[in-house]
Design brief:
With 78 residues, this protein is mostly helical. It has a domain of 50 residues. The longest helix is centred in the first third of the chain and has 29 residues.
């Protein structure tokens, strides 16, 4: 059983490393420091990231009608 947990952990670590590598490629591209990416490579990166990272655009926050969700933003300039 311990070997299986270790294998699962290895797979998770590999997935995180691969995702971070894809994000690094996109970050360099956005900052004008990377190589030019072909449309096919950009699409491949997009598909892989969609499979590994949550899509935050679909997140909704709802509250109980009797206890609505309250949002507060605090900005401090110092």
């Amino acid at each position: 059983m311990a070997a299986r947990i270790r294998k699962q952990h290895q797979d998770e670590v590999r997935a995180r490393i691969q995702v971070s590598q894809l994000i690094n490629v996109l970050e360099k591209q956005a900052l004008g420091q990377g190589e030019d990416l072909t449309p096919a490579r950009l699409k491949a990166i997009e598909l892989l990231l969609r499979k590994t990272l949550p899509d935050l655009s679909a997140v909704s926050i709802e509250g109980d009608p009797d206890n609505p969700v309250q949002h507060a933003i605090k900005v401090t300039f110092g």
